[in-house]
Amino acid sequence: METQVECLRIEGCRAVAEPGGPVVRISARAVPALRGVEVLVIPPEVEAFYGLNRFENLRVVEYGGTADVFAFQDSLDWLTEKLADEEAFLFRLATNAIGARPISPALTAITAPHMRPIHTLAHWEPLMAALDERAANGTVRQDTSRENIFLCQGYAQLKRLEYAFYVGRSLAEAPYSPGIDACYRPEDRFTGEERLIYALALLRGHSYQEFYTNGGANDYRHMRPKAHYLDYLRQNLSLADNDALRRQLLHLADLGFLDQDNCRAAVDLLLRSRLTEATAFLLDYCNRRWPRQARDAGADFLDTEFAL
Predict the structure, then answer these.
(1) Helical H runs in 111-184?
(2) pLDDT bucket at 100, cuts 50 / 70 / 90
């Protein structure tokens, strides 16, 4: 099975894998200058992609195939082999945390409408339960205990991947196949506002690990659900009516996070925050992005907002 190296076409912050001929494996391990890449596009014929950790600032992965392209199942299998042996299990978590990270800390969305998401793969549930149990039984602070730091890093990395699939699902064009669609539980899906808050938070450098080790209301002994995490992000969003926020909104739009539904959520969020200049800026952007004649009857909120 051939593995091709250096077959990426770099276009600004976007990298597109372009294998020459019939190839199912691509390696980016030897490709230089990947720090500025934020969007990675992998064609459906690729079944394995190596070197994802080379993309330090990667935010969006677009993949049209069905394969477990980043070998998430292999990682889950390896981590769960030693669940019954606490010392060996922690050693594997530590190895995974200290070694080359398989994903960028900035990763926000994996748009893969035909690929099974990580939270539906074998051994996901037992692994998450084991992490939860060990963290709940901890006796020292999460951010000072070496053992608990490994637990936190392992859990945070897995949650980031789970959220990336859920956010990516909302960015992918419909329809999903029934089998893949069933992988996304309605209660876990992000609303438009939640997608926006999460994307803004990661754009500003906030991580799940930061949330988890913060202490206080986010007690380090408990693995908090998505709702607690999003509440934490809302409380620490610190939106200001300035050029920096407008640049961030445009950046998210360039990355695909401000679709028509998300634009409505963003407008509502800015209005509630009394950010009048940012709201006007975003309304103008949405009006130009989706002109009145191109909007359907259910997307006429811009007319109402402008009328105010």
Answers:
(1) 124-136, 146-171, 178-181
(2) low
